[in-house]
Amino acid sequence: MNKHLIAVALATASLTLTSCADESTAQSAPTAQHQPIDVAKVIVKPVQSWHTYTTRLESPQEVALMPRVSGVIDSIEFNEGDLVNKGDVLFQLDNRSFTAKVASLEAQVNSAKAALEQAISEATRAVRLTQRKAISTEQAQARTSTLRQREAQLAALQAQLTSAQLDLEFTSVVSPIDGIISRANITKGNNILAGQSVLTSIVSNEKMYAYFDIDERTWNSSFNDVSAASRQPVVMQKVGQDDFAYSGYINFIDNQINAATGTLRVRAVFADNSGQLRAGSFARIKLAANAITETVIVPDRAIGTDLKNRFVLTVGENNVLQYKLVTVGERYGSLRAITAGLTEGDVIAVNGPARVGPGMPISPNTVTIDTSGIAFTLGNSNNQLVAKQ
């Protein structure tokens, strides 16, 4: 009897210890923690498609300066690389021979004027004498002929004098335009030839042109209603810059499609009051299509690449990430348009698949997609592309 009671007591004690151990183990097991991930609801914005083209800037006016008379350079009147104005004297030629020629012709003109005055006097007297029949008709006609010869001689000498005065004026080589002057190709003391020697070059810097070619399909689908008079806005980025900081507009559209390339040549003009644009610079041009559409916008970093596919991770039931194939559109700063795959109200992992993958439960941290400082359409009041791209 005592042995039976002892066995029951030992069994009861064993069950009690086992129950306590199980309860202790359950209390010590940690709760599973999900990874915190930034998520955001996609935004829908009215956007215009951007088209990008490459070009090199051209000056509206560029002059290869050549002399209009031959001679020897006496002095150079500019600093290389300076801004020059129309009419500024740039090169001065030795003008002594030109001055002497002008003086000689002036003397000949004065002599011809005196001879003409005498011929006029004799012709007038011949008319009176003829009326009194004091001289023959032949003598009167001879005096009239002499008068005409003196008039022609004077006219010829005056033309030669005008030409010589112009040549003397051209010994001062002046700038024909406002712009930036290059270096002097020919220095003081050298002989130069009229219309052959290139003294220097001058490039206008008040504004710059950018020519680029738009393919026929893009032009017909996005810009068919654009004309030079509509001043279609464009923005430009120089090499080494992150922003499209320069605003301009289209001011020329060619009159035909290039049949060989299937493109249309257009020109944008950029005012350069700050002197930061230089002819020959490589640049990228962006212009926006006129059509505006409501489009889903997400951060560009939210988009992942899976072989040939582009995808985003959306937040589904129970905060489990889901794989969504998408079709991407234009980029707007740090954001990207999604043309297919997402709809308004979808919630995405804003940092993309960097640390997570589809099927993974997460702890969502809701944030807002920042669109400040990004232009999705043309500006309002001034019709300019106003934001960084």
UniProtKB/TrEMBL annotation:
Pfam family membership, one: Beta-barrel_RND
Chain ranges passing through the membrane: none
Keyword Metal-binding: no
GO MF entries: transmembrane transporter activity
InterPro entries (alphabetical): MdtA-like_b-barrel (IPR058626), MdtA-like_BSH (IPR058625), MdtA-like_C (IPR058627), MdtA-like_HH (IPR058624), RND_pump_MFP (IPR006143)
SUPFAM superfamilies for this protein: HlyD-like secretion proteins
Keywords per UniProt: Coiled coil, Signal
Location(s) in or outside the cell: Cell inner membrane
Domain Multidrug resistance protein MdtA-like C-terminal permuted SH3: 296-352
Annotated ranges, domain Multidrug resistance protein MdtA-like barrel-sandwich hybrid: 63-198
Signal peptide: 1-21
Coiled coil: 95-167
Keyword Ion transport: no
Membrane topology: Lipid-anchor
Sequence ranges assigned to domain Multidrug resistance protein MdtA-like alpha-helical hairpin in this UniProt record: 103-171
Any one GO cellular component localisation term in the record: cell envelope
Biological processes annotated in GO: response to antibiotic
Domain (Multidrug resistance protein MdtA-like beta-barrel): residue spans on this chain: 230-288
Family the UniProt entry places it in: Belongs to the membrane fusion protein (MFP) (TC 8.A.1) family.
Protein name, per record: Efflux pump periplasmic linker BepF
